Amino acid sequence: MRTLRFLWVLGLLPPCYCRYFSGETFSEELVIRPLPDGKVASRFEFTTLLHGATPRNPQNLSVEDHSQHYTLFPLALGQILREYAVTELHLTLNAGKWNYDRWGYPEESDVATGASLWAWMAEGSGSASAANARHRVDARWRDLRNALAGLFCASIASLDEQRTTSPGRAFTPVGALPAWPASVQHAFRHASLPSENVCTENLTPFLKLLPCKSLSGLAHLLNPHRLFDADWHGMGLHVSWRPNEGVQVRLTFQSVSDPLRAGGNSRDWSLRLLFDRVVDRACPVAASSRIIVTLPTKELYSVHPEPSSVVDGRGAFDLSDQSFPLDLRLRWAEPFQHATVPSAEAPLSVRRMLRGSAQDHGALAISITNPDSDPVSVVYLETLPWIVYLYLSTLELSVGGVRRPDLLQDISYIAPVPHGRAATLEAFLSLPARSTVTLHIGVGRSFLRYTEHPPDAQRGWDLPGAVVALLPAASGNQSSATDSTNKGAMQEMKKWNQPQRIYTPALLVDPATPDFSMPYNVIIFTCSLIAFIFGSVFNGLTRRFVVLKSPE
Amino acid sequence: MFSRLLLLFLFSWIWGTLAATPSHEQIVGDFFNKNGASGGSTSNHTNNWAVLVCSSRYWFNYRHMANALGMYRTVKRLGIPDSNIILMLADDAACNARNRFPGSVYANPGRGLDLYGDNIEVDYRGYEVTVENFIRVLTGRMEPSVPRSKRLLSDASSNIFVYMTGHGGNEFLKFQDNEEISAFDIADAFEQMWQKKRYNEIFFMIDTCQANTMYSKFYSPNILATGSSKLDQNSYSYENDNDLGISVIDRFTHYVLEFMERINKTSHESMADLFAYYDPVKIHSDPGVRSDLFRRPLSEVRITDFLGGVAQVEVGEGVPVDSSAVAAAQEEDEWPLQGESPAVPPVLPVAEDTRERVGDLGGGWRGMRAWGGVLLIGGLVGWVGFRS
Question: Which parts of the chain span the membrane according to its record (chain B) (predicted)?
Fold first, then answer.
């Protein structure tokens, strides 16, 4: 009787789905897109979703947090996120220059050179007591940078307050910000370091955040010897909160490889050629594991093996119904014809130059070309370290030689503080149809102190790229969205609800460098002078010359 | 008269009991010496750390980065994990734009062995490699927000291997062509470490010009030091690689790594063997050794005491294993398919712990003696109290 009574408890047990590990889902995807100029762009995406989780409220930072038990979600990252109460976090480590004219829009729009880190963190308790000073946003931002620097073996810790800015409009959260009371406003911090190198030591911890590491699944293709040989490569970490789903961690790796340089004789590519590896087996804990290839539309080609499905010109290969080892191959029937992105589908083209040959002043010139038949509104963001300061009164906007100050609205400028704070310039720009808009600003260059120069001072300082953010909500941009050659990028834009951002390459500015041997020279010269003077006076006063008669 | 005899007997009994009780230090020492007495190492460290510093930047100092990476690969191969290695590289050679073989650093002209590999963690890179950070790593005096991977979390029983390479001179080493660290700075840092009990023994190796001058100023105990060349002597590079276009390794480090290739985790080679392997004719300079601060004889110091992560292990009697349980565990090795319940790992039977605990020395007898002493004192007090 007793055993029967307890049998009803079994009915309450939910069915156990082994891939649904205690509220976490992991899925992976590889998108490969052949580019018009013969190169191949690939994007790996590894998504781990922690169901039902919410970001930590910084008001509760003094209360001990609940213990974290994850199966697939990376614990090292989870600890950092909860320790510093981070709501949304984006970190990118890129190397190279993304050529928008030839390659179109990237799948992941954040292609700034070097290291970039931006995060949304809510204010901690506002009181000024010592215990709560650690809970303020700036203290948590500093600790977050140090923790990520240790996790990713990158110099993110040097993104200090001299490189941190808070632009308000170019960056919008990808996920949602929890609706905490109004006293707990979210603050936004952004910092970038264009001179950061990306190498295998950054990829090693990246792979350790994945459930299957690099042993199985698509992560096995991440071969550092090939990835860091690419024309452009970048890795990204994106943490966001989806209100109905939970906390999502997206690890991405994008690269643009050249099949010709990788050993092939033509632009035919295969996984073996691009990555020197093939997919040996599927990751057992992945809920979905897919490779998506953009198939050529105007040329004859052959792809092996056959895709599981073809949707909208993109073939999808689901690893659950492929045979292993899987080596995807795409071959063209005809020889290669070099092409660039057709002008009807070309993205905005942005160029930025630093003019002037003097070492204390110059000019910053930006030209944006809109090839579309519709006007476009963008947010233009410039964050410059304090060594370069803008003379806002010399700001000029012209289209085809004609001054058009009406196109620039709502300028927000935070002036730099020498040796203290970076400059932020943000403005709304309206770009007329089929035109080139040129911005021209006078700049001055600061004089650095002797100890502020980096060890390789003669190289100069890197200026982070300008950000031109297309606003998807504006009606004027809808047509450009559908005409874009990169349907995948536009789908990404809609999927993650973020604006497409265009980054200009980093500029190099060389401030006046002193002669670093001068302190040594001055010390030596002064000491010699003092020795001569003192020695002569001393000898003159104390030495007597006496004539001696030789005993002959 | 009788009472005096009794008191004398009491005191000698108590003193004998106390003297016969082995102290904690003796228990630990016995454990380590057990292995040492049988011809093994006489070291009493419990963990190993390595601090590997390459202090030069720029592409033409590729060989210094290869030096440090060669040592990194050796200490990893011999068992020190990444969490116990602090690797400082002042520049990026593997992903440098000038590197024809991206993601790889080679240390021999034929490019046989890639030192960078697929699994490497560089703790301090680029502009972070400064004299200040190096001394902070050694002394442990850092901001609270510095992450764990950048800290030297050593304790009083850690053996630390400190390797430095770069351009140097008479009692100084250049960091990134911008600043210098002097032999006095390193000596003072080691003394701070000694005062704060941050090391058991240090093995200091340096490969620069006039390297032996760098260890001439040490004054803390338990430091063994070796350098690649003496005062007024340069240290030379080994060979160029024609495809990379620069020298790939220095002579001293090359011959040290050549010696290390013969070592694995179970080797018994000693420091005396390493120092005997030095050949000034091949190295083109006179390497030196400083062992006056080191209390153990060099023939008893194993290479793996410093470069390896080898732990002292006491092997007990075999635990009988249920072979059917092992077979069942092997069958259930594959991941459960959808719909099946997760496998429960089999529980192996635990044998009784039949070894005698070290230092127990017949604990029952000691307890009896202690109680006997208490009863004796109680009896004496009672006799004195109820006398007269």
Answer: 368-386
Q: What is the pLDDT of residues B270-307, one digit of tens each?
A: 999 999 999 999 999 999 999 999 999 999 999 999 99
| A229/B116 touch (CB, cutoff 8 Å), yes or no | no
CB A105 within 8 A of CB A347: yes
* Tokens matching residue B145: 């927000």
- Spatial separation of the C-alpha atoms in residues A381 and A467, rounded to whole Å: 5
Judged against a pLDDT cut of 90, whether residue B330 lies above it is answered with: no
Closest Cβ–Cβ partner in A155, A204, A226 for B128: A155
Q: What is the mean pLDDT of residues A227-251?
A: 94
Asked if the C-beta of A214 comes within 8 angstroms of chain B's C-beta atoms, the answer is yes
Strand pairing class (B85-89; B47-54): parallel
- Residues on chain B touching A149 (C-beta within 8 angstroms): 147, 150
Residue A504, CA distances (Å) to A150, A237, A510, B41, B241 in order: 28, 21, 19, 60, 37
- DSSP code of B302? B
A318 touching chain B per CB within 8 A: no
Domain with CATH 2.60.40.1170 in chain A: 349-481
Task: Encode burial over A11-24: b for 16+ CB neighbours within 10 A, e otherwise.
Answer: eeeeeeeeeebeeb
Q: Does A134 touch chain B (CB under 8 A)?
A: no
pLDDT range class, residue A475, cuts 50, 70, 90: very low
Nearest to A199 among B94, B177, B338 (CB): B94
| Gap between the Cα atoms of B276 and B253, Å rounded | 15
Secondary structure (DSSP) of B205-246: EEESTTGGGGGTT--SSSEEEEES--TT----B--B-TTT-S
Q: Is the CB of A224 less than 8 angstroms away from the CB of B118?
A: yes
Residues 158-197 of B with CB under 8 A from A: 176-178
Cβ of residue A288 closer than 8 Å to a chain B Cβ: no
Q: Which of A136, A148, A199 to mutate to test the interface with B (most CBs of B within 10 A)?
A: A199
β-pairing verdict for A314-318 and A309-311? antiparallel
Question: What angle, 0 to 180 degrees and rounded to 10, lies between the N-to-C axes of helices B2-20 and B363-385?
Answer: 150
Interface test with A, best of B55, B121, B153 (most A CBs within 10 A): B121
Region of poorest pLDDT, from A327-341, A442-456, B4-18: B4-18
- Interface check for A17 against chain B (CB to CB < 8 A): the answer is yes
In angstroms, what CA-CA distances link B124 with A113, A524, B137, B147? 21, 35, 10, 11
Q: In this structure, what are the phi and psi dihedrals at residue B229, rounded to the nearest 5 degrees?
A: -155, 155
- Helix, strand, coil percentages (3-state) for chain A, rounded to 5, are 25, 35, 40
The pLDDT of residue A490 = 56
Closest-CA distance of chain B to residue A312, Å = 32
- Minimum Cα–Cα distance from A20: chain B residue: B338
* Helices A200-208/A137-152 angle, 10° precision: 100
Q: Is B310:B79 a contact under the CB 8 Å cutoff?
A: yes
ipTM: 0.86
Check B121 against A153: CB less than 8 A apart.
yes
DSSP character for A167? -
Of A18, A95, A227, the CB nearest to B338: A18
**Does B127 contact A at CB distance below 8 Å?**
yes
Residues in chain B: 388
Instruction: Provide the residue type at B71 as one letter.
Output: M
Smallest CA–CA distance from A158 into chain B, residue: B128
Pick the CATH number of A349-481 from 3.40.50.620, 2.40.128.710, 2.60.40.1170, 3.90.1150.10: 2.60.40.1170
Q: Packing angle between helix A137-152 and helix A75-83, nearest 10 degrees?
A: 160
Residue appearing with tokens 């970048």: A234
Instruction: Judge whether A158 is closer than 8 Å to chain B, CB to CB.
Output: yes
